[in-house]
Amino acid sequence: MKPENNFIMLFFHKKALGMKPEEIIRLVAESGLKGRGGAGFPTDIKWKLAAAVKDDLKYVVCNADEGEPGTFKDRVILTDFADLMFDGMTIGARAIGACKGIVYLRGEYTYLRGFLKGKLSERRKNGLLGSNILGTEGFNFDIEIRMGAGAYVCGEETALIESLEGQRGEPRNRPPFPVNTGFLGHPTIVNNVETFTWVPCIVSKGAKWFNDIGTEKSTGLKLFSVSGDCGKHGVFEFPMGITLRELLEKVDGTGAKAVQAGGASGRCIPASEFDRTIAFEDVPTGGSIIVIGQGRDMLKVAENFMEFFVDESCGQCTPCREGNAKLLEGIELLQKGRCSMKYLRELCSLGETMQLASKCGLGQSSPNAFLSIVRNFKDEIMGRTEKTL
Ligand SMILES: Cc1cc2nc3c(=O)[nH]c(=O)nc-3n(C[C@H](O)[C@H](O)[C@H](O)COP(=O)(O)O)c2cc1C
Ligand code: SF4
Fold first, then answer.
1. Yes or no: is domain 298-388 CATH 1.20.1440.230?
2. Whose CA is nearest to atom 9 of ligand 1?
3. CB proximity list for 321: less than 8 A, separation 6 or greater
4. Which of 247, 228, 227, 252 is nearest to 237 (CA)?
5. Which residue among 321, 326, 353, 365 has the greatest number of ligand 2 atoms within 8 angstroms of its CB, and so is best to mutate?
6. For ligand 2, atom 6, which residue shows the shortest CA distance?
7. In this predicted model, what pLDDT tens digit does every residue of 281-320 receive, in sequence order?
8. Domain range 6-211, CATH class
9. Residue nearest to atom 12 of ligand 1 (CA)
10. How much is the pTM?
11. Measured from the CA of 315, which atom of ligand 2 is nearest?
12. CB 317 within 8 A of CB 355
């Protein structure tokens, strides 16, 4: 992404608004853009489904909840490239026929609210929001900012919609999906901050530019939040398909023992697998890369993540509510050297059941770190005694 510039923005809009909604969706399809929030769902399919529903009221929701531990790349976009993100939301609105947009902003980012509202006012003044946007007859669209209140689960798109509606932020049963029955029962696309931000770049530079980067199934560039035991922390832009080894070289993290890819809900990849690629078909991540150095205790790493999930589970379904607590208890037993191999196998089977039976992505992914640490670091985590604590 390049620093924004008003002329470029106007160019994005003029070009996008000159296209028919189905042409915008086709362009996004040709680019291969997949959701940057973690799940990697094809953006064009989501937009196509919402566009196909007949309703006078449709919504574009930007998921700026950014609650995954180790993720802070959306904050950089919100701070430095907010106009590109608003451009992407506006193009999305044009594609699906929406007249209202909402940015659901992480509670901890309240300090950005005034700044973003100022940007929206400027856009209204410049004809980039409001009625007949840039003279396009009948294209009316506006955006408002709504605040989250710090619950990780509210980043899950249906819990987010519940929260927007003023209910307790708990995931809904799916189907129906938000593209049919979203905010206030109307068709709604929920996309990540970064996903929206790539759209005007694709409109401007062409689908081929994006599609030529990355792998066949994971195209384009991606922002990564890099933290942990490496020399260079921060937000980096790399092509999809980069290997973990290449990434570690760029951030002075070679010599790491492992990488937690995808935040607390991601997988812990050991050094022996650093030639794997960061891509939806191999090692997926919404952008969080936590480098784990040789000196780290892998049980402490697992404990840290499981404590987070015990706190953040909404408690609606049993596998997640009870399972996370049981896995944490198992880690405490391992720390005391009081977990037999048989019980550890049962805990792993519980983790696999949680992946299958939990109602939403939180419980489906919360055992990932535990399971991958047990699989890859068995020698390190077994056979402890209380004395080694
Ligand atoms: C527990 C949980 C938390 C999530 N948090 C976020 C988040 O903070 N930001 C985000 O974009 N997606 C988050 N997601 C994914 C969203 O449900 C949804 O898939 C995403 O916003 C879709 O946008 P995309 O297709 O552009 O990635 C979360 C999912 C789960 C299960
Ligand atoms: S998986 Fe966890 S967070 Fe999701 S609905 Fe069930 S209890 Fe709530």
1. yes
2. 66
3. 313, 315
4. 247
5. 321
6. 317
7. 999 999 999 999 999 999 999 999 999 999 999 999 999 9
8. alpha beta
9. 37
10. 0.96
11. 7
12. no
